[in-house]
Each structure stands twice: as C-alpha cells, then as structure tokens.
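Slide 14.
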Amino acid sequence: MTVILLAILAVLLVAIVLMFNRMIRLRNHTRSSWSDVDVALKRRAELVPNLVETVKGYATHEQQTIEQVTKARAESEAAHNVPAQGQAEGELSTALRRLMAVAENYPDLKASNNFLELQKQLATTEDRIAITRQVYNDTVQTYETAREQFPSSLVASLFAFKEVEFFRPDDPSDRDLVAVKTA
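Slide 15: predicted structure.
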C-alpha cells in the first residue's frame, strides 16, 4: 500500500514539474515575442523624425499634422505596458497615415529620393511590425490557454503565473497598416 501511495505521489510530482516547466517555457516565449515587437516599434520610432524632417522641408503649411506625428511618437516611446503601447501605436499609425496623405499633395516631396527611401523603409518596418504582432499574439494565446486549462491552471495559480495582455489597437480603424506607397 505504501509503495502504491509513493508511486502516485511520484507521478503527481513529475506531472507538476512538467506542467511548471511548460508554463515557464511559454512565458519566456511570450516575453521573447514581445521583445521582437518592441524592436520593430523602436525601428519605426527611429524613422519618424527623419520622415518628419523631410516633410517639413516641403510641406511648411502642414504644421499641425507634423506636430501630431511628433506627439504620437513621444507617447509611443513613453508607453510601458502592452495596452498603453497598443493605444500609442494606434495613434502613431493614424498620425503617419495623415502625414503620408499630406505628402500626396506635394509632387516635389513625392519625387525626393530621401522621402522615397524613407517610405520604403517605413513600408518594410510596418510589415515587420505586423508579423511580430501576430507572432506575439499567437504566443500569448498559447500561454493563456495553458494557464487557463485544467490541470495546468492549478499549477499556474499555485506558482502565480500572471495573465498576459494581447497587443491590439483600441480603435478598429487603427488595425490597418500605415498606407505607404513605394516607387
């Protein structure tokens, strides 16, 4: 009888260890995926000042749009959690769409090699952001499913595995990528 009880305890202990290790692996994968999103967002943030300066040189009458882009970029860099980052990135995407629309009104700007290169880099960066966002949200879904399913939910609550937020814009219109045309 004691041997059977010890065998059951050993099986339970092994199951708990395996579930714990799986939760650790999923949590770390989620953190790594967020890091990839963060790198892509920082890349876009680095492109924005160059884009703003280029547009400023041609579109001096568009100060309000330029200020909106600059403000949105600053808010994006100040965001410190996933929901705040989602909102800030939505605002930045909206502001960049407006900036690109302004550029359509200035043929000299549209023909500028510097502007064309920045547009190309921004388009590539927007693609990268979309991909990393998707990967991040997929890893969050896998983690959250494991965290909520029985019996791993017992291990998750026992070891205080926290909920992780999905990365999504607040405004449905912000779900669209910045429209960037390349030559």
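Speaker note: DSSP finds six helices and no strands in the chain.
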